[in-house]
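Supplementary Methods. Inverse-folding protocol.

Structures were first reduced to a discrete structure-token string of length 205. This string, shown here, constituted the complete conditioning input.
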């Protein structure tokens, strides 16, 4: 009888061990899963423990473009655009010293104005008819001013009408010498016309 009871107890004990084995293994596996997950998070940059940087004040997180800011940025970064030069014609067709001096005054003022602004300018004083005396070596009443002006303002040039020079040569029966600062053009009137067609501004004193 005792042996029967002992055998029964052994059988029950074995059965309990068999049943408890899978449960214990499952509990052990469950405990190892969080540990593995924690290791995976530590190695994955997405789960880095580094704190996120705070957003800067006024930072736009919507991704929308601001046209005003883009235009301002473009103006600051683009290279400076070359400015169109200012161009002026001053016509002199009178032998009056007052008219010649007025033309020189205008040329000086315009040249100095744009020099102060740092903007390019070109000025041509075109003489023809009686105004050619302004550039004649022997009769110019403003020759000293022309010499000084040519040195201080190289943007000012002086043009003499070739037709007028030839007519004076025939009328006076001698060569008509011009000041060194003068350049002869075929026709003073044509020169004025062609410069105007190129967009030059025209002023008659």
């Amino acid at each position: 009888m005792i042996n029967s009871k002992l055998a029964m107890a052994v059988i029950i004990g074995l059965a309990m061990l068999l049943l408890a084995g899978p449960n214990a293994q499952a509990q052990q596996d469950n405990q190892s899963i969080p540990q593995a997950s924690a290791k995976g998070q530590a190695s994955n940059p997405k789960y880095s423990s580094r704190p996120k940087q705070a957003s800067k004040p006024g930072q736009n997180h919507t991704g929308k473009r601001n046209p005003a800011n883009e235009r301002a940025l473009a103006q600051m970064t683009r290279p400076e655009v070359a400015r169109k030069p200012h161009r002026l014609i001053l016509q002199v067709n009178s032998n009056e010293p007052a008219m010649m001096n007025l033309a020189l005054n205008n040329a000086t003022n315009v040249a100095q104005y744009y020099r102060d602004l740092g903007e390019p300018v070109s000025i041509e004083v075109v003489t023809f008819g009686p105004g050619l005396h302004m550039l004649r070596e022997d009769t110019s009443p403003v020759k000293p001013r022309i010499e000084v002006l040519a040195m201080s303002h190289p943007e000012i040039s002086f043009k003499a009408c070739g037709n007028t020079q030839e007519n004076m040569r025939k009328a006076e029966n001698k060569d008509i010498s011009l000041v060194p600062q003068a350049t002869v053009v075929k026709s003073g009137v044509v020169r004025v016309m062609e410069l105007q067609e190129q967009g030059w501004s025209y002023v008659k004193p």
